[in-house]
Design brief:
The chain is 32% helix and 17% strand. The protein has 23 helices and 27 strands. Bound molecules: beta-D-glucopyranose.
Length: 764
C-alpha cells in the first residue's frame, strides 16, 4: 500500500509538472501531446482498449468499490469512465480505486445527463428555447456546471440539439425545437455555459453535443426509428446546430441510435469522420449513445465483433455500455479488422479529454465536499431559476384580458398538475430532489398570501389507464384509481362552483415526453378534456395552464377556453414562477420554438417549408388541385414564433436602407416597435428572409435573427437588423455553402406568420 501511495504522489508530481503550464490543453498543445505520448508508451494494448470503455455506474456502494465487479475492472484498467454516478463521496471513492489501485493510475472521467440544471432544475430545453433568451440559456448551463462539478461530475451528455418537426417524438422536449437558426444559437450558448473559458477549472464541465445525427427525424415520431433524408436537407436543416456546437468548441459528441444513409450513426464513417472531423474540424472525442454499438447487431450490421470494429473504424472513441470494444477489439486487431493506429487514436482522444479537464493534475479536482455543501441548490441559483422560468411561458390566448388574475376572492386550482411537485422539474432531471420542487398550489398560496383564498381539487388523473400510468412513470402507477374519472370531475366541479375563477392545471405528466415517450394522439391525455368541459359549464371564467414537453393538438381548448398559458415544465421553481406570471408580477414573453398543429394528420408541419408548385398561399381553402387538405386548412394552430403578452406590441412598416446592393455590402432593416398596451413587457422581434429564386428550391421563409427587447407601456423604439451575405447562404446541390444573387424578401414580425415584408435586390 505504501508503495502505491509513493507511486501515486510521484505520478501526480510528474503530471503536475507537465500539465500545469497548459491548463486547457488545446488540440496540438505540445505539452499535452508529450504527456499523453509518454503515458501511452507505458500502456499495454489491453489498457488502451480499457480506456475506450464507458461503464454504467451500477450499484456502487461507497467504501466497497474495490471488491465489486466494477471495482475489479477499474483495477485491471478495463474502464475509462463511469456513467451517471452521483455524489462527491461516491465519485471520490471510485476515483481513488482508479488512481491508487490500477497499474497506470489513470483517472476516470465521470459523465452524467445534466440536461436542464442539476439539483436546481431549470425549464426543459424546449421551454428555454421559448425564451429566445440566449443569455438565459447560457446561464442555466453555467449554473448546472457549477452544481454538477461541485458534486463530482466533470462531463455532461448535453446539449441535445436534434432538430425535430414531429411532436409525436417525445424527445422534442430535450431540444430547441424545429428551427436550425434558433437551435444553433442555443447549442452555442449551452456549450459556452457548460465549458466556460477553461475546461480545467473545477467549476466547468465538458459538454457533449448529441445525438449526432438527425435523431429528431425518426419516421412517424417513433423513438429510435429509421431515418432517410437527402443530404441537402441534412446540411441545410438538420446539421447546423451540431456544427454550431463544434464551432463553439464542444469537447465531445454523442452518436445517435438511428441510421443515416443506411448505416447506423455509431458505425457511420461518413458522419463521424468525413463530416464531423474533416469538414467541421472537430478534435474532441466521440462517444456512442447507450449500448448503440451493441444495437448495430439488431440493425443487421453483423455480430458484436463486426460492429465494434465498424464503430472504431468510423471514428467512435468511447463505447457507452456495450463493452463491444473491451471484448472484441484485441481479436479484431489480430485479424486485421482494425489497426493499432485506430485504437491508439481513440485512446489518445479519451486521455486528451481527461487532460483538458485537469484530471491528471488532480483526479479529485471535482470532488470538493465543501463545494458540494455550499454550491448546490443555493438560494441564488433558485432565484435565477424562478426568474428564467417566467421568461419561458407562452401566452397562447387571453380573451378579454382574463389574465393576469387579481389577488382577490376565491380561486379554484384544479387538475392533475395543480399539486404535483414530482412533475414540476420535468423529464431528465436525474439529480433533482423532487420534494424540493415548488408545486403550483404552494406557489399560488404564497403569492396571494392573505389576499385571496385558493382551493384545490385534483379533478382527474393524468391518464385513465393505470397500465399507461406505470409505463410513463418507470413502472410505477401514481394515479388515484380508487375513484372513477366521473367522480373525480364531479368533486372538482363542486369545489370550483363556489369560486370566482378557475385555474385548470392540465397536460402531460413530466415523463410523458422525453426518451421513448412517443405518442400518436397529441390531445390532452385521459379525461382532462372532460374535466375542462365540466369546468366551463360552471359558467366561471377558466384559465388553462398547459404543462407539456411537446406541442399538443389543443384545437378544442383554443376554441373554448378563454385564456391559455403554456408553461411547459419550468423546473424546481415552477410553482412560484407560474404564480408570478398568472398574478401579473411578470408579463409573459415566451414565443413558440415549434409549430403547434391543428391535428396529428398535419405532421410534419413547420414554418420554413418549401412553396411547392401548387401553393395554396393566401387563396381561400379548399382549392382543387392546389396543395391542401380536404378536412383541415394548412394553417397551424399556433405558428412558430407565436406568443402573446399582457400588453400589445404594434409593428410599423419595415424600412430597408437600400433597395439594391452588391457583394459584401450590408443591408440595414429597421422597424418601429411600440408597446401600445398598458403593461411593460418584452417582445421577441424576429427577422425572416426568403430567397425568391435559387438553383435549388428555397423555403418560404427562414429565421435569420431575433432580438428580445423590453419596452415600457407607451414606449416606442426603432429596431435594426444588419444583414450580410452570410445570412443568405445555403448548401446548394454540390453541397457548397454560398449565396446566390437575386431578389430577397426581408420580413420582420412578432411571429413567423404575422410579418412586415420588404424586398431587395442583391447582386454578387
Ligand atoms: C439517451 C442519451 C443519454 C444516455 C445516457 C440514452 O438512452 O439516448 O441521451 O445521454 O442514455 O444516459
Amino acid at each position: 500500500m505504501r508503495y502505491k501511495l509513493i507511486f501515486l504522489s510521484a505520478f501526480l508530481a510528474l503530471n503536475l509538472m507537465t500539465a500545469s503550464a497548459q491548463k486547457t490543453g488545446t488540440a496540438g498543445d505540445p505539452k499535452m501531446n508529450r504527456f499523453i505520448g509518454d503515458l501511452m508508451k507505458k500502456m499495454t494494448l489491453e489498457e488502451k482498449i480499457g480506456q475506450l470503455n464507458l461503464h454504467p455506474s451500477g450499484d456502487i456502494v461507497t467504501g466497497e468499490t474495490s471488491g465489486s465487479e466494477i471495482g475489479k475492472k477499474i483495477i485491471e484498467g478495463k474502464i475509462g469512465g463511469l456513467l451517471n454516478i452521483k455524489s462527491v463521496q461516491k465519485i471520490r471513492d471510485v476515483q481513488k480505486v482508479a488512481v491508487e489501485e490500477s497499474r497506470l493510475k489513470i483517472p476516470l472521467i465521470f459523465g452524467m445527463d445534466v440536461i436542464h440544471g442539476y439539483q436546481t432544475t431549470f425549464p426543459i430545453p424546449l421551454a428555454l428555447a421559448s425564451s429566445f433568451d440566449i443569455g438565459a440559456m447560457e446561464q442555466t448551463a453555467r449554473i448546472a456546471a457549477i452544481e454538477a462539478s461541485a458534486d463530482g461530475i466533470c462531463w455532461t451528455y448535453a446539449p441535445m440539439v436534434d432538430i425535430t418537426r414531429d411532436p409525436r417524438w417525445g424527445r422534442i422536449a430535450e431540444g430547441a425545437g424545429e428551427d436550425a437558426y434558433l437551435g444553433s444559437c442555443a447549442a452555442e450558448a449551452y456549450v459556452h455555459g457548460f465549458q466556460g473559458d477553461d475546461l480545467s477549472k473545477n467549476n466547468t464541465i465538458m459538454a457533449c453535443v448529441k445525438h449526432f445525427g438527425l435523431y429528431g427525424a425518426a419516421e412517424a415520431g417513433r423513438d429510435y426509428n429509421t431515418i432517410d433524408m437527402s443530404r441537402l436537407r441534412m446540411y441545410n436543416e438538420y446539421f447546423p446546430p451540431y456544427r454550431a456546437a463544434v464551432k463553439a468548441g464542444v469537447g465531445s459528441v454523442m452518436t445517435s441510435f438511428n441510421e443515416v444513409d443506411g448505416i447506423p450513426a455509431s458505425g457511420n464513417k461518413w458522419l463521424m469522420t468525413d463530416v464531423l472531423r474533416d469538414q467541421w474540424g472537430f478534435n474532441g472525442f466521440v462517444v456512442t449513445d447507450y449500448t448503440a454499438i451493441d444495437e448495430m447487431t439488431e440493425h443487421g450490421m453483423g455480430d458484436l465483433q463486426t460492429v465494434s470494429a465498424l464503430a472504431l473504424r468510423a471514428g467512435v472513441d468511447f463505447d457507452m455500455a456495450s463493452e463491444g470494444f473491451l471484448t472484441t477489439l484485441e481479436k479484431s486487431l489480430k485479424e486485421g479488422k482494425v489497426t493499432q493506429a485506430q485504437i491508439d487514436q481513440a485512446c489518445r482522444r479519451i486521455l486528451e479529454a481527461k487532460y483538458k479537464l485537469g484530471l491528471f493534475e488532480d483526479p479529485y479536482r471535482y470532488c470538493d465536499s465543501n463545494r458540494a455543501k455550499t454550491e448546490i441548490f443555493t438560494a441564488e441559483h433558485n432565484k435565477i431559476a424562478r426568474d428564467i422560468a417566467t421568461r419561458t411561458f407562452v401566452l397562447l390566448k387571453n380573451e378579454n384580458h382574463l389574465l393576469p388574475l387579481a389577488k382577490k376572492g376565491k380561486i379554484a386550482l384544479v387538475g392533475p398538475m395543480a399539486n404535483s411537485p414530482g412533475n414540476m422539474a420535468g423529464m431528465w432531471s436525474v439529480a433533482a430532489d423532487q420534494k424540493q420542487s415548488v408545486s403550483l398550489l404552494q406557489g399560488f398560496r404564497e403569492a396571494v398570501g392573505g389576499q385571496a383564498e385558493v382551493v384545490y381539487a385534483r379533478g382527474t388523473n393524468f391518464v385513465d389507464d393505470p397500465r399507461l400510468d406505470s409505463w410513463i412513470n418507470f413502472g410505477e402507477s401514481v394515479g388515484d384509481y380508487t375513484r372513477t374519472p366521473k367522480e373525480m370531475i364531479e368533486e372538482a366541479v363542486s369545489v370550483a362552483s363556489t369560486c370566482d375563477v378557475i385555474v385548470a392545471a392540465v397536460g402531460e405528466p413530466a415523463e410523458m415526453s422525453g426518451e421513448c415517450s412517443s405518442r400518436t394522439d397529441l390531445s390532452l391525455p385521459g379525461s382532462q378534456k372532460e374535466l375542462l368541459d365540466a369546468l366551463l359549464k360552471t359558467g366561471k371564467p377558466v384559465v388553462m395552464l398547459l404543462f407539456t414537453g411537446r406541442p399538443l393538438t389543443i384545437t378544442w381548448e383554443q376554441k373554448n377556453i378563454p385564456a391559455i398559458l403554456n408553461v411547459w415544465f419550468g423546473g424546481t421553481q415552477s410553482g412560484h414562477a407560474i404564480a408570478d406570471v398568472v398574478f401579473g408580477a411578470v408579463n409573459p414573453s415566451g414565443k413558440l420554438p415549434v409549430t403547434f398543429p391543428q391535428n396529428v394528420g398535419q405532421i410534419p408541419l413547420y414554418y420554413n417549408h418549401k412553396n411547392t408548385g401548387r401553393p395554396l398561399e393566401d387563396k381561400e381553402w379548399f382549392h382543387k388541385f392546389l396543395s391542401n387538405y380536404l378536412d383541415v386548412t394548412n394553417d397551424p394552430l399556433y405558428p412558430f414564433g407565436f406568443g402573446l403578452s399582457y400588453t400589445v406590441f404594434t409593428y410599423g412598416d419595415l424600412k430597408l436602407d437600400k433597395k439594391k446592393l452588391a457583394g459584401d455590402q450590408k443591408l440595414i432593416a429597421t422597424i418601429r416597435l411600440t408597446n401600445s398596451g398598458k403593461y411593460d413587457g418584452a417582445e421577441v422581434v424576429q427577422l425572416y428572409i426568403r430567397d425568391m429564386v435559387g438553383s435549388i428550391t428555397r423555403p418560404v421563409k427562414e429565421l435569420k435573427g431575433f432580438q428580445k427587447v423590453f419596452l415600457k407601456a407607451g414606449e416606442s423604439r426603432d429596431l435594426s437588423f444588419t444583414i450580410t451575405p452570410e445570412e443568405l447562404k445555403f448548401y446548394n446541390s454540390d453541397l457548397k455553402y454560398d449565396w446566390e444573387p437575386g431578389e430577397f424578401t426581408i420580413m420582420v414580425g412578432g411571429n413567423s406568420r404575422d410579418v412586415k415584408p420588404a424586398t431587395v435586390i442583391w447582386e454578387k
